Amino acid sequence: MRIAIIDDSGLRATILEEGLREAGFEEIDVVPPHGAFVARLERMAPDVVLMNLGNANRDSLEEMLAVSRALARPIAMFVDQSDESMIGAAIDAGVSAYVVDGLRKDRVKPVLELAIRRFNAFSKLQGELDAARTELAERKTVDRAKAILMQSRGLSEPEAYALLRTTAMRQGRRIAEVADALITAADLLGDGR
User: Fold this and answer.
1) What is the 3-state secondary structure (H, E, C) of the chain?
2) Separation of alpha carbons 136 and 146, rounded Å
3) Measuring CA to CA, how many Å separate 171 from each of 137, 152, 168, 174?
4) Measured between alpha carbons, how far is residue 58 from residues 9, 12, 22, 27, 88 in Å?
5) Backbone angles phi, psi at 129, to 5 degrees
6) Residue-by-residue pLDDT tens, the chain, 193 positions
7) CA 55, CA 94: separation in Å to the nearest integer?
8) Which residues face 66 on adjacent strands?
């Protein structure tokens, strides 16, 4: 597992790195949060990112948001102090674990494991949500296509669905694709509903 530590204080980075090495991790890179560090992280493609921000502020949270967007990886953040708005901003930015005043090398591994588990759980939920949204959108498309067929060809709803299904099977396409093509054609002909 490749782990990136984002930190610009040598002592804090050393605590994190020692905690990781004692836990058996070997691929560790320390990246100072300066310049084009997000691009550097993208090239490194770490599996997990640990950020030690000390006293986090809005600018550092913005940088973290950039890291979260660029990598889509588990991120654990260590800060010395925080407040409700900072915690909310961190969660919104995609931080999987947010640890206040808890930078000790013996805590690094449990925090790392927590970040990975929370990230995986969130990713699974996000995937299920995306699938549900896609299914709902496809169902609406099929319903609209059925309505067009029912109106234009005088078919019942089951007959309209059967026509879409057999057309999809004959063309080796999904029903939603055939329905979408039908809606597009109906719109072009001025017959869409």
Assistant:
1) CEEEEECCCHHHHHHHHHHHHHCCCCEEEEECCCCCHHHHHHHHCCCEEEEEEEECCHHHHHHHHHHHHHHCCCEEEEEEECCHHHHHHHHHCCCCEEEECCCCHHHHHHHHHHHHHHHHHHHHHHHHHHHHHHHHHHHHHHHHHHHHHHHHHCCCHHHHHHHHHHHHHHHCCCHHHHHHHHHHHHHHCCCCC
2) 15
3) 21, 22, 5, 9
4) 19, 20, 33, 30, 12
5) -65, -45
6) 999 998 877 788 888 899 999 999 999 998 888 778 888 888 888 999 988 877 666 676 677 777 777 788 898 888 887 778 878 877 877 888 888 877 788 888 999 999 999 999 999 999 999 999 999 999 999 999 999 999 999 999 999 999 999 999 999 999 999 999 999 999 998 865 5
7) 19
8) none
Tokens representing 35 are 């310049």
Structure tokens, 187: 């719109």
Residue with tokens 């995986």: 120
The token duo for 109 is 């591994």
Q: Tokens 């930078």, residue?
A: 103
